[in-house]
Design a protein that fits this description.
Layout (H helix, E strand, L loop, with lengths): L1 H11 L3 H18 L2 H10 L3 H8 L10 H11 L4 H19 L1 H10 L8
Length: about 120
């Protein structure tokens, strides 16, 4: 995860703590919304992903919305602008594509309504 976090810091211009939080939110979202086996394969291929995921699981509070909008709202609450949310999402999916391949990421993205617009 260090490589992805460093990439987000360099390419999106956010600090390390915010990058880690954003990645955790994205992984939590994918785990809730995507195909369980494919998402687990992704998480397993990213050393350190479990720690970031565990830090974000169940986040959002009592009145939080779920899905894509909920994940975006959680990232904005962490201090990201809408543009940064989109950039972080694109960079994270691109990084994941490098790790597990286009086909596997395509299956994950293809099963989540609206996600394809962001990546």
């Amino acid at each position: 995860m260090n490589d992805l976090v460093a990439r987000l810091v360099a390419n999106v211009g956010i600090d390390q703590a915010t990058a880690e939080k954003a990645v955790g939110i994205i992984l939590d979202f994918l785990q809730k919304e995507g195909p369980a086996d494919k998402v687990q394969a992704l998480i397993d291929s990213l050393p350190g992903a479990d720690a970031l995921l565990k830090a974000e699981q169940g986040g959002g509070g009592l009145f939080s919305m779920g899905g894509l909008m909920g994940a975006g709202s959680r990232m904005m609450a962490a201090g990201l602008s809408m543009g940064q949310v989109q950039s972080v999402t694109k960079e994270t999916i691109s990084f994941a594509r490098e790790k597990i391949g286009e086909d596997a990421i395509g299956e994950i993205v293809g099963t989540i309504p609206g996600l394809g617009q962001f990546v």
